[in-house]
Design goal:
By secondary structure, the protein is α+β, with helices and mostly antiparallel strands. It is built from nine helices and four strands, in the order βαβαββααααααα.
Length: 232
Amino acid sequence: MVDFYYWTTPNGHKVTMFLEETGLDYNIKPINISRGEQFDPEFLKIAPNNRIPAIVDHHPAGGGDPIRIFESGAILLYLADKTKTMIPQDLRGRNECLQWLFWQMGGLGPMAGQNHHFVQYAPESLPYAIERYVKETSRLYGVLNKHLSDGRAYICGDYSIADMAAYPWVFPHEKQRQNLSQFPALSSWFERVKNRPATQKAYEIAKSVNVAPTVDHNAKSILFGQDAKTVI
């Protein structure tokens, strides 16, 4: 059994997609980040960066004590290695998958995240910041579109954790001011992932966990008002 500490963000969806795709037994433990539940001392023992997602695997491969993991990319890689699925098992294939996983973790996720912030949540409109991150999001979409333009169905050929990592950050493309019709290969890939039963189940679970997704003034102060004092 895997305890899954989750909220309905792109990084949270990645792990739900994996768990539903592979059929691993898991138990969702909601962490409402708009209410500050990510600062609970018990959660911080698992996720010291006070971010979701995180997991506790009570039956790790090889036995022994439960394993605690935070950071969505690390979780995906751990679960892929645990199940020996959703990542190529040969050296070249594995490294291609890891490159695209890290591309999402270091590029698409952070840049689209800043896009979300300045387009949707900033207290004042900052044209330079909006243009900067909308353009960088577009560039990253272009990188993935070019990669997919050789006719492959998924990022690494077969469906993998690279697709699960990227898809939730492309899902809100309209809010990011991106038009998928400008990225035909990316658009086709997006529809393939979207139509997978496990993806649909993951997003249905999100609706049941977060029935009223709003970010009010209090939530903004919790989500966007942190500094070093928050973790001291």
